[in-house]
Amino acid sequence: MDVEERIITLLEEEEVDYERLTHEPVYTSKQASEVRGVPLNSGVKAMVLQRDRDGLILALVPADHRVDLDAVGKSVEGEVKLASPEEVLEVTGCEIGSVPPFGHKDPLETYLDPGVMDNEIVNFNAGKHDVSVELPARDLPRCVKSSGSSLTIKKIRK
Question: Of 9, 106, 143, 156, which sees the most CB atoms within 10 A?
């Protein structure tokens, strides 16, 4: 089962009202908002980070912001940096720019910036550059947890 299939299966199991969108390939948050016809801040940017002490974690911020690596580092009590493209692909099954907030091969410890929840609807790539999912923001934390990931809600955006 690929990432998109895991996402759709989880959404169906959780009875989340969602929409699956196909579109031209996008590689940036700005491109994604334009092709989806939605405000940039409604996108969920999923950034895979490498902890200095061990393993990878996932940081979710509104697409119009950047991840504050210092804030995440304080939360995990260590330094963090962006994971390499190879690490991202190995752990999530996705290329950089297509990583969703849940549905990865291996669930990741996840940090969600509360600003993501300021929107009624959120959207994100579904593990592919040409497929997106839109769902109610209120359902996102439940989907992350249902995917097997631990979830911490904390301000982590610049």
Answer: 156
